[in-house]
Design brief:
The complex is a heterodimer. By secondary structure, chain A is α+β, with helices and mostly antiparallel strands. The C terminus of chain A is likely disordered. The radius of gyration of chain B is 28 Å and the shape is elongated. The longest helix of chain B is centred in the first third of the chain and has 21 residues. In chain B, the strands form three sheets. In chain B, strands 10, 11, 12, 13, 14, 15, 16 and 17 form an eight-stranded mixed sheet that branches. Chain B has a seven-stranded mixed sheet with strand order 1-2-3-4-5-7-9, sandwiched between helices. In chain B, strands 6-8 form a two-stranded parallel sheet. In chain B, α8 links the parallel β3 and β4. The two termini of chain B are 46 Å apart. The chains are: A alpha+beta, B alpha/beta. At the A-B interface, α17 of A face α7, α14, α15 and α16 of B. Chain A: Pathway: Metabolic intermediate metabolism; propanoyl-CoA degradation; succinyl-CoA from propanoyl-CoA: step 1/3. Chain A: InterPro entries: ATP-grasp, BC-like_N, Biotin_BS, Biotin_carboxylase_complex, Biotin_carboxylation_dom, Biotin_COase_C, Biotin_lipoyl, CPAse_ATP-bd. Chain A: This is propionyl-CoA carboxylase. Chain A: Its EC number is 6.4.1.3.
Chain lengths: 753, 563
């Protein structure tokens, strides 16, 4: 049936080789023979959307004689890059309307499309149908290759409850908890009596933090039970809940595996990758991942790898998967680890494992799916696949870190990604890799996960990789939606992160009141002031200054912090204009060297259309984003992850600006605006109710997440302005409050009478 | 430069005042002495020697000048600062390139003697207004700046004469005029002389209209007859919190109609930039407003002489592909998007200067550049009212089109319009008359007209939006565009009456014929169907070719646009 083809077994090889059937070179050991259907490439349908489609396609296009992709999409994604850039011979197929339930989760339609396009394989990506055992079974039975583990493994490991049982059987250390599905909230309260607070409620079918709640007391648990249940129902169509001990301050560490049944021994060959540390999380979803971890001792690593290997063999696992652990590492104490769950799919963060091992996991999955076994580069006798260097990944989401990470939608414009240096040379010792699903002008819709891209940096060691990623993010221009790139930037430059102290509670601990934007040190502010002055003088259009005259650079706009910058030929002086006597010691004049950065005479490289300036300060290149310009000449500037309006004035303008009044801010004390676009699901109060500070007012659902809106002050509900079930825009006022009137006083005369 | 030095401009009145030299009582009273004591010379002593006479005149001149620089005096200057405003001279200083302002009529004084105006305290050289010319971005600009510290910036006969003089001079040399308005109104002591002054200014405004750009910045009160001079200029800008405009103020409104309303609610920036459409934009304060004026002037020619059109070099390639625009415009004709994103992708460096951004958001009017040359962009914006044309949108765009046409600025139009907004409000308000303004303006305009239909152009609005039939020079549509009398479903309901079982099929048939640009391309109503990502390249190319466009003027006194 499947005919043989020849291909050079090298992941960097992108040119199409003359792949004649049965042509086999005996002289080169790097040539291997492969069977494909009728000598034509396998058609690999990617039953997913966004960046993962392009990721899988990238591997397929490296082996054009062996694989080609079939792209499916919803109507909402018709213009998305993964559709526009589809390279297979089959045109992208629209499989339904925007709602995932009617497109990417529409099994019937997908099965029909598999048939119609003659697809031989299905890669489910992550999310959507990737851990749907029934789907895997259905297509396997239809003779189509499921690029993932066998359905029984999906079923066993995908169910959190069952996976824990299997893990226990395989001798894997697990988290204490109730071994079964919760029947009621009362039962949950009963279980807590044994294991104690805090506890974690989670959906049995869940993943990715959806339907997951941490409870610290009975009230939390009662409140969370219903919400977790309905979230689980809406996201996974399965409202079964589990409860377990919540491990405080753990690290999240996981092992990537690639398993294949050895045709000669019929044993499972397990390739274990070096661990990934994925502890920087928000809402139980990963944000920053790196490999290897700086936390793990060699002893823990060995124990964990042994358990991982055993678990895979016990399950009879094949293809790519990930085994997640929680690691507790009390200072000075012993490290302990607990099996958390197994993800039976290719994970979002797989690129960092690929980076440190120099392999292509998708290729591995394709090879295993085609029945060719593990590609040569995965063959090893070591317990862990040999690796070198350090890789770190940031997931950049369209969400608002200043408002509890609520999703943000809209058109991305301008949107410019850092340059991907991996594509040109995947074997470079240091590179930036962009796995992105969007492009300039792309509209982020509320229908799907709001991830924009994964920005990955690979280098020889951790400090270089962290610095490299931060610098890449400095060059990442994202406007039009709120996003977390600045938060990630702040984390990467945080001393505790650099020291490797990154428990999963990192964000809560170091940003207890939420992310308020990056605060720059005075030294960095001075750099920013000089940099912006250089851009301005380079453009030479807005200010009325003459060369050599000082510029007043005001970070934060006309009423912000002022710096007096005088640019010379090779140096600049900068002085912070202090406003109070306490600050006076900060007002020293500093001299900054403007010498060239390898280019003769070039200290500024700026094109307004590219929104990015490269400025050389003290012999180091710095990146400054200049994204928009107001009619008044005010610039919107970003540097080191800090974002602010900047106004540049001459000294005289600055002097006269001191007479200007600050704009009056709108009083928001009496309104409760929607923090995000969504739907008002229900109200917990009625008009006329007296509410306390922090009391639940209503629930707004966005992207299938239910968000409790609480009162920010004590007051009386004057009006509920949005009907239940109606959609609201971000900042749209949902509830009006009025100050509480002192009823007793009003009543007093009546009583007296 | 010498002139500039002579008026001691670079130091500024306030600085001089603070130095103490010019505000000593002696200096002031001496100035007044010279001003009022000429008759006494006769009776006192015989002829003095000429050099002493010249020296004393020099002293008197210096004193007059220093008095002029101080306007209404330090106390009033401080008061002006306290309310968050700059003085007339400080504003001039920020508007012009440093050291280039050349003042005119600094010594001009009012001639009124009634109602105590002959008193010493009512004498102000310059008469409450600073006028002159200088350079903005290196190009000549004329300006007047009313001085609220002098008799409340009130307008006298002589004050008006100074305004008229700069307006006439600006026309003579072909340079824009900027008026910085901050005046309590007519100088009541002068009675009808003041009214006459206003009318002289109005006439000068009209004479200059279409010859040189006229810009008004309202930086304080502007009430009664005073509003009509700005109203006849090309653009009005306002300053938040400190400026307001109305024909009759809250007190009169209360007396006549018993309506209680604040100045801000009656004629503040919010009213005029988003409700009345009187003003073209607002800025947070004086400094910001003046910077914005410098930026706006960089887009404008000095006069209606074609050779004064500005050019700003850019490294933004004319053939830059714009793949983002196809993503920004959703396929579904009912899904809104912000047309401003599309415009910013296409024009040089993504830079626009929007006119009336808060008014009739269903249409965008903005200055931008293509290959360094200024263009006027008019675009339906589906983000508001689905991009319909209504009364406000029609008048807003019509005025903008006429400004561009008057000053030889090519028109770039982006069309995504479902038609005119239906409703009794619109009909009673005269959408026929107001919509006709835009149609008239586009038809009359003989500057280069290039047009792109991004998604749809239905009904009469298709004709209005710079269509081929109105002598559009280059008209394009993107492949997904619909050009039709109306949407398919509505059309089928009319064609086949009511609803039927086959309405879906008929709709599909109608859509197949008209929900694409083929029919228009076959008839030449559009020159071509272009790929969205080629839009910038195509438009730049056409605008380059059209730079030599000539259209014969039609011989007539003037057309009769439906006002």
């Amino acid at each position: 049936m499947w005919q043989r083809q020849v291909i050079r077994n090298s992941r960097s090889l992108q040119t199409r080789l003359a792949a004649k059937a049965r042509c086999f070179s005996s002289t080169s050991s790097t040539l291997q023979q492969f069977d494909t259907p009728d000598g034509k490439p396998f058609r690999v349908m990617v039953a997913n959307r966004g960046e993962i489609v392009q990721r899988i396609q990238r591997t397929c296009t490296q082996y054009p004689d062996l694989f080609e992709t079939v792209v499916v999409h919803s109507t909402a994604d018709a213009m998305a890059p993964f559709v526009a850039e589809a390279s297979g011979s089959v045109k992208p197929v629209c499989i339904g309307p925007a709602a995932a339930s009617q497109s990417y989760l529409n099994v019937d339609k997908i099965l029909q499309t598999i048939e119609q396009t003659g697809s031989h394989m299905v890669h489910p990506g992550y999310g959507f149908l990737s851990e749907n055992a029934d789907f895997a079974k259905t297509i396997t039975n239809a003779g189509v290759v499921w690029l993932g583990p066998p359905p029984h493994a999906v079923q066993e490991m995908g169910d959190k409850l069952r996976s824990k049982e299997v893990a226990v059987d395989a001798g894997v250390t697990v988290v204490p908890g109730y071994e079964g599905v919760l029947e009621s909230v009362d039962q949950a309260l009963e279980v807590v009596k044994d294991i104690g607070y805090p506890v974690l409620l989670k959906a049995a079918a869940g993943g990715g933090g959806k339907g997951m709640r941490i409870c610290h007391n009975d009230q939390d648990l009662k409140e969370a039970y219903g919400m977790a249940k309905s979230e689980a129902k809406s996201f996974f169509s399965d409202d079964r809940l589990l409860i377990e001990k919540y491990i405080v301050n753990p690290h999240h560490i996981e092992f990537q595996v690639l398993c294949s049944r050895n045709p000669t021994t019929n044993e499972i060959d397990v390739v274990v990758f070096p661990e990934r540390e994925c502890s920087i999380q928000r809402r139980n979803q990963k944000v920053i991942e790196e490999s290897p971890s700086v936390l793990l001792t060699e002893e823990s690593r060995q124990k964990m790898v042994a358990q991982v290997r055993q678990l895979c063999k016990t399950v009879g696992y094949e293809s790519a998967g990930t085994i997640e652990f929680l690691v507790e590492a009390p200072p000075g104490g012993e490290q302990s680890f607990y099996f958390l769950e197994m993800n039976t799919r290719l994970q979002v963060e797989h690129p960092i494992s690929e980076a440190v091992c120099g392999v292509d996991l998708v290729k591995g999955m394709l090879w295993i799916g085609a029945g060719w076994g593990l590609p040569e580069e995965f063959h090893t006798n070591e317990p862990i696949l040999p690796y070198k260097g350090h890789a770190i990944e940031a997931r950049i989401y369209a969400e608002d870190p200043l408002r509890g990470f609520l999703p943000s939608t809209g058109p991305l414009r301008p949107y410019v990604e850092p340059v991907d240096t991996f594509k040109a040379n995947p074997t470079a010792p240091e590179y930036t890799r962009m796995d992105s699903g969007v492009a300039n002008g792309h509209v982020v819709t509320p229908f799907y996960d709001p991830m924009l891209s994964k920005t990955i940096y690979y280098a020889a060691d951790r400090p270089t990789a962290v610095e490299g990623l931060a610098t890449a993010l400095d060059q990442y221009i994202i406007e039009g939606v709120q996003h977390n790139a600045r938060l990630v930037n702040a984390v990467l430059r945080h001393p505790e992160f650099m020291a490797g102290n990154t428990p999963t509670s990192f964000l809560e601990t170091h940003f207890p009141d939420g992310f308020q934007g990056v605060q720059l040190s005075l030294a960095k502010e001075e750099e920013m002031a000089v940099g912006v002055a250089m851009i301005e003088s380079f453009k030479n259009e807005l200010t009325m200054s003459k060369p050599g005259e000082p510029l007043m650079v005001q970070l934060g706009g006309m009423f912000g912090k002022a710096f007096k910058v005088t640019l010379g030929e090779e140096t600049a002086t900068v002085q912070y204009i202090t406003k109070t006597p306490e600050e006076e010691e900060n007002g020293a004049v500093r001299t900054v060297s403007l010498s060239q950065m390898g280019k003769e005479g070039a200290t500024v490289d700026y094109q307004p259309r590219k929104y990015l300036a490269e400025v050389s300060l003290d012999n180091t290149p710095r990146f400054i984003q200049v994204v928009s310009k107001e009619a008044t000449g005010e610039l919107n500037v970003q540097m080191y992850g800090a974002n602010m309006p900047v106004l540049i004035e001459t000294e005289r303008e600055y002097e006269l600006s001191s007479h200007m009044h600050e704009p009056v801010k709108q009083d928001t004390t009496d309104i409760v605006p929607s923090p995000m676009p969504g739907t008002v699901m229900s109200y917990a109060v009625q008009e006329g109710d007296l509410v306390e500070d922090g009391q639940e007012l209503c629930i707004v659902e966005a992207m299938k997440m239910q968000n409790i809106i609480r009162s920010h002050r004590k007051g009386v509900v004057e009006a509920l302005l949005v009907k239940t079930g109606s959609s609201v825009a971000a900042d749209e006022v949902i509830i009006k409050l009025v100050p509480e009137t002192d009823d007793e006083e009003d009543d007093a005369p009546a009583k007296a009478a | 430069m010498m002139m500039a030095n002579r008026v001691l401009f670079s130091k500024g009145a306030a600085t001089l005042a603070r130095s103490g030299i010019l505000t000593s009582k002696g200096a002031l009273s001496q100035a007044l002495y010279y001003h009022t004591s000429l008759p006494r010379h006769k009776s006192a002593q015989p002829a003095v020697d000429p050099s002493s006479l010249k020296a004393s005149f020099r002293e008197r001149l210096d004193n007059e000048r220093s008095k002029a620089l101080l306007g209404g005096g330090q106390k009033r200057i401080d008061k002006q600062h306290t309310r968050g405003s700059l003085t007339a001279r400080e504003r001039i200083e920020l508007l012009f390139d440093p050291g280039t302002f050349h003042e005119l009529d600094q010594l001009k004084a009012h001639r009124c003697v009634d109602f105590g105006m002959d008193g010493e305290s009512k004498q102000f050289p310059g008469d409450g207004i600073v006028t002159g010319h200088g350079l903005v971005n290196g190009k000549v600009v004329y300006a007047f700046s009313q001085d609220f510290t002098v008799l409340g910036g009130s307008l006298s006969e002589t004050h008006a004469e100074k305004m008229v003089k700069v307006m006439e001079m600006a026309q003579r040399v072909g340079a824009p005029v900027i008026g910085l308005n901050d005046s309590g109104g007519a100088r009541i002591q002068e009675g009808v002389m003041s009214l006459g002054g206003y009318a002289d200014v109005f006439q000068a405004n009209v004479d200059a209209s279409g010859v040189i750009p006229q810009i008004s910045v309202i930086m304080g009160p502007c009430a009664g007859g005073a509003v009509y001079s700005p109203a006849m200029t090309d653009f009005i800008f306002m300053v938040e919190q400190t400026s307001y405009m109305f024909v009759t103020g809250p007190e009169v409104v209360k007396t006549v109609t018993d309506e209680v309303i604040t100045k801000e609610d009656l004629g503040g920036t919010g009213v005029h930039t988003s409700k009345s459409g009187v003003a073209h934009d607002k800025f947070p304060n004086d400094v910001a407003a003046l910077r914005a004026m410098r930026r706006l002037l960089a887009f404008l020619p000095s006069s209606n002489d074609k050779t004064t059109l500005p050019y700003k070099p850019t490294d933004d390639p004319a053939d830059r592909p714009v793949p983002a625009v196809a993503r920004l415009v959703p396929d579904d004709p009912n899904t809104p998007y912000d047309m401003k994103d599309v415009i910013k992708e296409i024009v040089d460096d993504g830079e626009i200067f929007e006119i009336q951004p808060d008014m009739a958001k269903n249409i965008v009017t903005a200055f931008a550049r293509m290959e360094g040359h200024t263009v006027g962009v008019i675009a339906n914006n589906p983000i508001s009212l689905a991009g319909c044309l209504d009364i406000s949108a029609s008048t807003k765009a019509a005025r903008f089109v006429r400004f561009c046409d008057a000053f030889n600025i090519p028109l770039v139009t982006f069309v995504d319009v479902p038609g005119f907004l239906p409703g009794s409000n619109q009909e009673f308000g005269g959408i026929i008359r107001h919509g006709a303004k835009l149609l008239f303006a586009y038809s009359e305009a003989n500057v280069p007209k290039v047009t792109v239909i991004t998604r749809k152009a239905y009904g009469g609005a298709y004709d209005v939006m710079s269509s081929k039939h109105l002598r559009g020079d280059a008209n394009y549509a993107w492949p997904g565009a619909e050009l039709a009398v109306m949407g398919a479903k509505g059309a089928v309901e009319i064609l086949y009456g009511g609803s039927g079982a086959d309405i879906e099929a008929k709709s599909a048939e109608y859509a197949d014929q008209f929900a694409n640009p083929m029919e228009c391309a076959r008839r030449g109503f559009i020159d071509d169907v272009i790929e969205p990502e080629d839009t910038r390249k195509m438009l730049c190319n056409d605008l380059r070719v059209l730079r030599t466009k000539k259209m014969p003027d039609i011989i007539r006194k003037h057309s009769n646009i439906p006002l």
